[in-house]
Amino acid sequence: MALGYAASIGLLASAWQVVLATIVISAGLGLAYSSMPALIMGSVPTTETAAANGLNALMRAIGTSVSSAVISVVLAQLTLGPAPSLTGLRVGLALAAGAALAGLLIAIAIPRPGRGAPSVATGAATDAGTHAHADTDADRAAAKRV
Q: What is the spatial distance between Cα 29 and Cα 63, in angstroms, rounded to a whole number?
């Protein structure tokens, strides 16, 4: 996605260039949005997946609203006559590329089981003294031994 936004800064001379950049951006957006629930579900305890995915949906909505407002301000400030200037479009695309790179860095930083994240299966004892939900037979057996 970031590559598509960055490339589109220089690909505004003809319609085929804009279409090419849009295809790359859309493919990246589809991959990012479709993989995010799996990343989230693999990074949180089983009992928290609904809340985590709900927060993901909320953050998507807020991100869409904020990014629309930011790009609108940029384009309004860099308008020549009735239409935004090419400079305004390029600044907006550069901001989008930066946001996509920031998203990539955040996604890379998400802890994954086996890479330092606490295991969902081991779970901490709750206030009532019971163990967190175990997902597999081996996890249930390990929970019984604790």
A: 13
Q: Give me the DSSP letters along 26-69.
A: HHHHHHHHHHHHHHHHHHS-GGGHHHHHHHHHHHHHHHHHHHHH
Please state the pTM of the whole predicted model: 0.63
Structural contact between residues 98 and 24, judged by C-beta atoms closer than 8 angstroms: no
What is the per-residue pLDDT across 78-136, written as a single tens digit (0 to 9) for each?
887 787 788 888 898 899 899 889 988 987 887 766 544 454 444 444 444 444 444 55
Banded model confidence at residue 139, pLDDT cuts 50, 70, 90: low
Nearest to 121 by CA among 141, 93, 96: 141
What's the rounded Cα separation, in Å, for the pair 83 and 85? Answer: 6
The 8-class DSSP code of residue 113 comes to B
Backbone phi, psi, residue 84, to 5°: -65, 150
